[in-house]
Every structure is written in structure tokens, then in C-alpha cells.
């Protein structure tokens, strides 16, 4: 029997949301006193103006288009241009689920906390720098424990899977999910899925207990193993169903979150009471919306060791050049932050900033000048930088990994060779170049102290969300506050360094390197910043009314406009 919680900030759903699968292909709408639930089968055709007083909820349902599946969107409008991009809830398609009081109310560690439970209406603003007349813009549901939960402790059968490349902190997140479920919610049935997505149907599982995971945060890698490729939605959901799993914690990058979204949609289609929670992971820090991904700080810190070594080598010998290659397939955040942190770097090359070697303003000219001035120099290059240059000078392979990610050519080796060739061919200067490739070293280490704490918060957010019945969500800090974010927001766009924004300008000013930017490049960068038309009414055409750029948004790939207005 569902219980009401006295004094609860949340009201139990008297009018539970309409089950999505029933209404999936209708054009009808349903109104109550202050809410409108609008169910459409097409994403693009809906145009409903925001309601002035009160709020309006729109649930946009996915429809298969070719092989791409459009996501479910649940959007609520409020006053002053307020938009809530909400995440799905189990009651969206299972309206009569029983609810239970949150066992944290009786937990001695948490019951002393004043207002430990998050108000159900709390949301987190994506835009925090506002003008007097700015609209309030997009918000996400605040994460944290709710007074009521949709799972009883002994009913929960959770599983955890890690997918994609390694990242410092994977083991910490696993540990914290297991310990958090057990300590906070008394959950004791937790399975580890081995070897990534394909482990659901092709590998063994391992039972995870607080005791078995106690020390794993001190190790790099993932105790569960990981993989690329092998995402077979039907087989994965069959496995979830056959094993009686009802909470799935999926740790991985953009590809993994796309896979999690497909699993969620299939779970929903089958009408299963299974919560799907994504925990975003990527060493490259290229996940949109969230402030930063776990392991990134650790990677930047670890990269300092390689940069230090390169600097020591370079400054100890005449015309010494240290070249360090760091990770960053499409985004140069590790290289940029490692450079800014180090102050020993003379030039940082990232995928977002095209560069050239020869001629006036080119890299080779700059190297020569810097060697004449300082006698040594350090170059940091992100692995995804200059791929166009290598492809031109070598036969491009165009190979992909099992997940469909482009396999990169080795920019570090190529660049080192080009520099050596240049200085030996024109005999201007004898140089001494040392190439250091610590790429896998920076992601194979255990997470540092601050990442460890961050991993705990992520794990707890995911647990509270799943216990509260939310599903089809990923989590992360938005402007410092943890939030539940719909999958499509994380997967629609990869976060990149904005080369016309403040942080890159700081880097250019600290290294004094050429920007390599022609007027066309700036224009291109400006155009790339055009956010794809978002589906939010009441916003400007790029979906961010009165957009104001902050350093935080720079991390999130926003901000070309700012430089232009400076
Ligand atoms: N569009 C997609 N739909 C379903 N599954 C996907 C999709 N893209 C990737 N996956 C699956 O997600 C898993 C991880 O993907 P991928 O190898 O791209 O790593 P990632 O999660 O992006 O992490 P990393 O940051 O290390 O690249 C793989 O098992 C892959 O099959
Ligand atoms: O683990 P793999 O397959 O070698 O992939 C390496 C890639 O993974 C990442 O670490 C994360 O996407 C990239 O920086 C890098 O290009
Ligand atoms: Mg990826």
C-alpha cells in the first residue's frame, strides 16, 4: 500500500501523468488546472506558446526516423521564459506504481540534516549570468533524495556497467554506487556487468558488495572491464528482463549515453519498471551541459608530470624541444588546461584550432623564433589536432574503432618528424627534440582527491534519482549544482573548446603562441557556435535567449559571440 509522507514537500500524484506508450501516436492534449500534457508523434511540428501564468508540460515522444530514434522530451514552461527540460519518470508509462517513504528518513547519518530532502520543484538554471530583462531560460531538475521513493529496498536489483575508454574515477563511481545503495537505501542485490555493453549478453556477471568494492577506488581502470562496440539493444534489454534487474547504472561517454538512451526507450516500450541512470564519463571532458566530467582534473594533473619531464629535457640541452601528446579526440580541454596549469608550455595545439606549419605565421617560424629567444621550448599537442594536415601528407586510413569512432593518425610522431626534417634540411639550427607520449598514462591512474569526492556526488545523484523513480536520465553538475539531465541533451552535441572565447585567449596570452587564425577561421568558428535550433519556444533562434557567455559556458562550448563583442 503506498504511503503518504506527513509534511512532505512533495505531493503524491493524484493525476499521474498519462502513460506515454498509450498516447504515443495521438495528437490529443490533456489539461488540468495548471498543466498541459501535449503528446505528439512528431518532434518538429509542435508549436505551443508558453503559458503566461502557471506552467505547461509537454511530453514529446520519439518516433523512429531511419535508424535514428528521436528522444522523448518532457518540457515544462513557466513565467518569465522559464523552461524545464525534465527527465522521464517511471509513472509516465506506469501510472499506478506504489510509493514508499524514503528510508533515509530513518538513517542516523542523514536524518539529522536539516532539509536533507530536495524539494520536488527545485530546478537548476543552465544560464546563471543574466541581464535585467533576460528570460529565465532552460532549467534541469535538481538531483538529490526525494521524500518518497518508488522502490522498496529489498525489491531493488541493481546492475552497473562501464563502457568506452578508461577514465580515472571509474572504480570510485562503482564503489560509491554499491556503498551508496547499501548504506543509504539498504539495497543488497547489485550485479556488476563485465566488459561493457556486450557483457549483458556475452559475459559473466559479478556480485558487488560494499566489502568487495571497499578498496577499488585506489586502483585505476575499471574492475568490471570495458569495451567499445557490441551494443545490441534487444539482447541487452532481454538480459535485464531475464535477470530481474530493475535499476541500471551505466557509466560511459557520449556513445555510452546514446546506448543508454536506446535501452531506456526499449524498456519503456516493453513497459518495464526499470530505472535507467547514466553517469557521464570521458577523459576528454567533451560532454555537453555538465560543468566537467570526472577524471578530467586527475588527467590534467597527471599530464603535468609529462610536461615537466619535457621541460626538464628541453631546457637542459641547446635548442631543446619537448613535444608532449595528450588525449583529446575532438576536444582539446586536457591540452588547454594542462598548458594553462603548467606555464612551461610555449605552444598548445588542439583540434578546435587549425594550424599550419610553413610560411609566415606558421608553427615552424614560431619554433625558430622561440628557440632564438629562449634556447628551448615545449609543445603540447592534443591527439586530435592537425588531423587534416597529416591526412594531406599521408594516405588517410579512415579507420574506425568498434564503436564507430574515427581512429586518429599519430600527430605527435608526425609533428616531431616534420620539425626535425625542417631544421635538418635548411641547416639553420641543430635542434634536440624529445617526444613524450603519456596519453594512456593520464587516464590509467586512480582518481585524485577532488575527483574522488566528485565521483561520490555523481553516484549519489544517480542513486537518489533511480530510487525516486526517475529514469532515462544522466546526471552532472550544471553551474555547480547537480541535476538530472535528459539523455538527448548530453548526446546531441559534443562540447568543444571555443577558440574565440576567454579561456583560449588566456592560453594564447600565456604561451604567446600565434593564434594561426585567419579571418576565415574566426568566421568558421563563429558559425560553428550556432547551436542547432532547439525545440524550445520563447527562446531565441539558437535556443538560448539573451545568451550571456561565462567561463563556465566556455567549458560547455558556448561563447563565440563574446569575443566578437569585445
Ligand atoms: N549511437 C549509439 N547507439 C547505441 N550504442 C552506442 C552508440 N554509440 C556508441 N554506442 C555504444 O556505447 C559504447 C561506448 O561507446 P564509445 O566506444 O563511443 O565510448 P564512449 O562512451 O563515447 O566513451 P569515450 O569517451 O571513451 O569515447 C559502445 O559499446 C558502443 O557500442
Ligand atoms: O581506448 P581507445 O580505444 O584506445 O581510445 C582512445 C580514445 O579514447 C579517449 O580517451 C576518450 O574518448 C580519447 O581521448 C582517445 O582518442
Ligand atoms: Mg565518445
TrEMBL record:
Mg(2+) binds at residue 254. It catalyses: beta-D-fructose 6-phosphate + ATP = beta-D-fructose 1,6-bisphosphate + ADP + H(+). Its main location: cytoplasm. It is found in: Cytoplasm. Residues 159-464 form the Phosphofructokinase domain. Residues 1-31, 517-566 are annotated as: Disordered. Catalyzes the phosphorylation of D-fructose 6-phosphate to fructose 1,6-bisphosphate by ATP, the first committing step of glycolysis. This is ATP-dependent 6-phosphofructokinase. It comes from Canna indica (Indian-shot). The gene is PFK.
